[in-house]
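Data card: per-record layout.
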Amino acid sequence: MAKDKSSKAHYKMRKADKVQKASKQPKVPKAQKASKPPKVSVVTAPPLVTTPQVATAPKVAPEPKVTTAPKVATAPNLPNTREALLDLHRDTRKRRNRAKHGSPEHVAAIDLLGQIEVEIARIERAMDPPLG
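The structure for this 132-residue chain is written out next.
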């Protein structure tokens, strides 16, 4: 039993030492505990450096719009024979090739070529005998 008492006494002494060590820390007055934490100054980043503006390319004038030949409800006075239509077709192709691309003369020649080709096809269909 002697051991029990001494071990209890030893335990109490160690506990008392710990309490004394903890109490040796400086006590902070209550006024300081309740105060707000000190303000921290905020460091701002330096302003961003912007890159210089790149000069834009000069504006290019828009290309002129291509004009189309006026729509004709009926074909102009075209020859009635296939040979005459082929001669007119050849002359119109030459006129189209001489004209500046996209010009009114160029567009009119293309339109006339289409009409001539339709007339040649009409004559050739009439030349073939019907099937059957």
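Known properties of this structure: The helical segments are 2-23, 30-34, 82-98, 104-127. The mean pLDDT is 77.

See the next section for split statistics.
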